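Example 9 (inverse folding). The structure is encoded as follows.
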């Protein structure tokens, strides 16, 4: 199966690229300043001047959605990089050494799973205060054991393969075998998992912002837009619809992209098609 025949991959990549393009464009241009207040035109309905209307402070909702895309995707991206950057080496090390080291790493991962991103953010906020940086840190810490477990499980199957045994017989050490043989063979699994964690990180960031632990005012955030919209849900229901659709599209695009990549990169699925 070629990449162009995978509808999930094409659709997911298209939605993801669209959201990324919106985030990049918002860094240089938005229809209005996302933080510009215009009380006279507050809670305005969608119009040519304001395609998505305005919020309770008269801010242009389209501009806030665009700026919120940059904030949410940045937090999610850095959180995934932190999680993969620490979790992949940890899982690869556990798979390479085995024995009590493997047991210790896995039990540490089990302990980390007891502290979800929201609880970790609450603890970090208590020490350092709320903010986007702390949200990145909290979500990234939660991602570490996820990547460690995925890497360890996939790497252990590679360590049992004949070519790895041949490399060990030839005198190559654990680090060389991991870098040259193990990681290249599990890269597809890690790439698919990264797209899944990216989607989960967007939802986690929206949740943290919703409860006031993520991106702080006046910077726009999809989660805080939902929080602000609940007060005016009967008067201006579209205030909740637009950020909700933005979150849904981002997560849907990344999930479709992950499914498409899995179908495309897995030779067993490729042969089946």
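The amino acid assigned to each position is listed next.
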């Amino acid at each position: 199966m070629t990449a162009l025949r995978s509808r999930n991959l094409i659709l997911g990549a298209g939605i993801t690229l669209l959201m990324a393009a919106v985030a990049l464009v918002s860094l240089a241009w938005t229809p209005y300043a996302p933080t510009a207040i215009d009380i006279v035109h507050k809670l305005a309905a969608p119009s040519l001047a304001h395609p998505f209307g305005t919020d309770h402070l008269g801010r242009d909702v389209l501009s806030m959605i665009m700026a919120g895309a940059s904030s949410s995707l940045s937090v999610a991206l850095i959180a995934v990089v932190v999680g993969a950057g620490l979790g992949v080496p940890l899982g690869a090390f556990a798979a390479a050494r085995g024995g009590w080291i493997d047991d210790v790493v896995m039990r540490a991962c089990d302990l980390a799973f007891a502290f979800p991103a929201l609880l970790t953010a609450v603890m970090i906020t208590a020490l350092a205060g709320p903010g986007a940086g702390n949200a990145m840190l909290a979500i990234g810490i939660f991602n570490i054991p996820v990547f460690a477990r995925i890497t360890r499980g996939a790497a252990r199957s590679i360590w049992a393969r004949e070519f790895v045994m041949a490399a060990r017989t030839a005198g190559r050490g654990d680090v060389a075998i991991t870098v040259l043989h193990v990681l290249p063979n599990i890269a597809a699994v890690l790439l698919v998992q990264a797209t899944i964690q990216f989607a989960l990180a967007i939802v986690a960031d929206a949740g943290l912002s919703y409860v006031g632990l993520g991106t702080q005012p006046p910077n726009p955030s999809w989660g805080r837009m939902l929080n602000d919209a609940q007060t005016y849900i009967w008067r201006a229901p579209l205030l909740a619809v637009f950020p909700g659709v933005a979150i849904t599209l981002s997560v849907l695009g990344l999930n479709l992209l992950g499914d498409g990549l899995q179908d495309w990169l897995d030779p067993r699925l490729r042969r089946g098609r």
